[in-house]
């Protein structure tokens, strides 16, 4: 799987030839000024929750690419009102078979209002299971005991976890989360974009290393193969 980082919590993951884009927040992100949002590929867009820093570019990318937008029911209804008709509403606990693999929605402990103040339903994380491998995209969340369920019942090859603290869990709790989900390969997200979530990246990597886990941090625009 090729994974490209577009800044903040936005990643493009190529699974079985399909481009899955997570939480696009590119054009308002000063750190992602090197990314031309009009060239970002998407066959699917997965949205963890309604906050601006996860949804800012969804409407424009969905309209340009005709991507299927997978999100909770409330965000789906809101996107339909913005002229995006290609939505697939889901909710926590539900799974659906897409052509690239299965998507299961799991709980996230956070909030989810939409940019205009509309109620954005409940925040979610996603587990992707495919013939090319399995991964967990946590979205914005605190450390929760529910994450143990993922580790107990699924095999996760790698996971995207927030590490910026203040709005989500930070590095120390993300290390515990990686133990709960039994995954030693963690891709960090939701750090450095704003003052509240600036972190010491070297310290974060060494803390994960000391715990026996690998923390992988991308440069914005960088692609790595998993
Ligand atoms: Ni959020
Ligand atoms: Mn956020």
Q: Can you walk through the features of this model?
A:
It contains six helices and 14 strands. The mean pLDDT is 98. It has helices at 52-55, 58-65, 73-81, 147-153, 171-180, 201-210, and strands at 2-5, 11-15, 18-22, 44-46, 68-72, 87-90, 95-97, 102-107, 124-130, 133-137, 158-162, 185-189, 214-216, 223-225. By secondary structure, it is an alpha/beta fold. 46% of the residues are buried. A seven-stranded mixed sheet has the order 6-5-4-3-2-1-14, with helices on one face. Strands 7-8-9-10-11-12-13 form a seven-stranded mixed sheet. It has a single domain (2-225), classed as Metallo-beta-lactamase, Chain A, CATH 3.60.15. Helix 5 (171-180) links the parallel strand 11 (158-162) and strand 12. Helix content is 21%, strand content 28%. Bound molecules: nickel (II) ion and manganese (II) ion (MN). Residues 49, 51, 110, 140, 167 line the site of nickel (II) ion (NI).
Any guess at the CATH architecture?
4-Layer Sandwich
Q: List low-pLDDT spans.
A: none
Number of spatially distinct domains: 1
Helical amount: 10-25%
User: What do we call the CATH topology?
Assistant: Metallo-beta-lactamase, Chain A
In percent, how much strand structure appears in the residues?
25-35%
Describe the main β-sheet briefly: 7 strands, mixed
Whole-Å distance between the termini? 5 Å
Strand order of the largest sheet: 6-5-4-3-2-1-14
């Amino acid at each position: 799987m090729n994974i490209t980082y577009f800044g903040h919590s936005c990643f493009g993951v190529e699974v079985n030839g399909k481009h899955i884009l997570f939480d696009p927040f590119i054009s308002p992100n000063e750190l992602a000024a090197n990314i031309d949002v009009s060239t970002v590929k998407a066959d699917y867009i997965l949205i963890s929750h309604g906050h601006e820093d996860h949804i800012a570019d969804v409407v424009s990318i969905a309209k340009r690419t005709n991507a299927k937008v997978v999100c909770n029911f409330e965000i789906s209804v809101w996107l339909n009102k913005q002229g995006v008709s290609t939505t697939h509403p889901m909710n926590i606990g539900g799974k659906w078979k897409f052509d690239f693999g299965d998507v299961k929605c799991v709980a996230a402990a956070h909030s989810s209002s939409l940019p205009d103040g509309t109620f954005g339903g409940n925040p979610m994380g996603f587990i992707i299971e495919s013939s090319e491998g399995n991964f967990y995209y946590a979205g914005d969340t605190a450390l929760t005991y529910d994450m143990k369920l993922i580790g107990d019942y699924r095999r996760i090859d790698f996971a995207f976890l927030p590490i910026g603290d203040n709005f989500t869990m930070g590095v120390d709790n993300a290390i515990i989360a990686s133990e709960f989900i039994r995954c030693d390969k963690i891709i960090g997200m939701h750090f450095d974009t704003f003052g509240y979530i600036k972190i010491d990246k070297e310290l974060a990597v060494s803390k994960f290393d000391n715990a026996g886990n690998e923390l992988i941090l991308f440069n914005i625009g960088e692609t790595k193969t998993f």
